[in-house]
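DATA SHEET
Item: assembly model
Revision: 1
Owner: S.N.
Input lines:
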Amino acid sequence: MSTTHSERLAGLGLTLPDVPAPVAAYVPAVRSGDLVHTSGQLPFTGGELPLTGKVGRGEGLVDPVSAQQLARTCALNAVAAAASAAGGLDAIEAVVKVVVFVASDPAFTGQPAVADGASGLLGEVFGDAGRHARSAVGVSVLPLDSPVEVEVTVRVRS
Amino acid sequence: MSTTHSERLAGLGLTLPDVPAPVAAYVPAVRSGDLVHTSGQLPFTGGELPLTGKVGRGEGLVDPVSAQQLARTCALNAVAAAASAAGGLDAIEAVVKVVVFVASDPAFTGQPAVADGASGLLGEVFGDAGRHARSAVGVSVLPLDSPVEVEVTVRVRS
Amino acid sequence: MSTTHSERLAGLGLTLPDVPAPVAAYVPAVRSGDLVHTSGQLPFTGGELPLTGKVGRGEGLVDPVSAQQLARTCALNAVAAAASAAGGLDAIEAVVKVVVFVASDPAFTGQPAVADGASGLLGEVFGDAGRHARSAVGVSVLPLDSPVEVEVTVRVRS
């Protein structure tokens, strides 16, 4: 028997965080047919952003290694949002697309390594079904001065 | 009988703007199966951008309240584009995904409040069917120096 | 008999570049149902970026005409990635959505003209089937200091 996503998640020592209640017209994730699109997820941990600021190398910047870890947290939050709309983690058939926005110092060009934090988490949780198309871009600033924001599209089992 | 999207739009005192004619390979919206993807919409009003520049607080910046109103206009333009590809406003079953790009001063981190202008309009026009996943990001600059750009994905009734 | 995409590509004197092998959980393109989402594509030519930096007018910037050509290259790379996941170029029924990220000097607002490089290539290769929804945005910096990044969604023949 193959390992389920839930079993892999538990094996990683991770649990899915609570998904915030919908506020008005804007919700954490929406299912349409067999796809679930998540909202852009910030690296909230226990309701707080562990770090804020722009990613780069130098004084006053969030270092790339920390940013990679934040991207991992964003991805975990996105999985939680997707699972809530899909009917549970194991109802997700595959990850389809990931966009990683990195609030970047203009001199910082290592967005792919930051995004690897998100891709790695998805691979660990979903195995082969976690293989996804990805865009990583550097933006000037993100909501609440978050260093990273990640949105995910997944396919639900039919 | 439930209220239609068209009735709600009229009740808001709004009409859908004209959708620009397609230019070459790039068109305002494309239907694929039961999804319609719009192009990124700028806050054109009567063919002009009411404001240009970066959003933030301070001299020479577009204030967040004005930007929220611009996001509302972008969303209305996106609804018009989506409706044109869907076969009319009432052929839209639900809003799925919204991405709000805010041309931001690097110190401005209030992109979600700006994006609420788009989300609010969609909620007012579509009611519960307007509930969407959303990403809001701050970018360095947008086409024609627009302060806001909004793209929308909707599902069409089958 | 109508002209195939492959015939048009050959008529343009173009060939699809090799698609890089997947690295871990992140792959060049993913098929889900009848849609293929590509990863964000940089303008790699023979494994190298022909230019790096921000797009704009002035000393030390990548000029808009060169950036338009880079967007064309990104689009060709995206077509190659999409074709690899679709089962070949002629298995692609239509282009659906294109997002063009332009690493922009804050004073540069000509992202649409840069994006026209991508749209034009898609129109030349796919003809009427190349008509797509498009978002063009200016961002602060892109991976490896690439001036342009393009992601594409296409529909596969069923």
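QC remark: The domain at 5-156 of chain A is CATH 3.30.1330.40 (60s Ribosomal Protein L30; Chain: A;).
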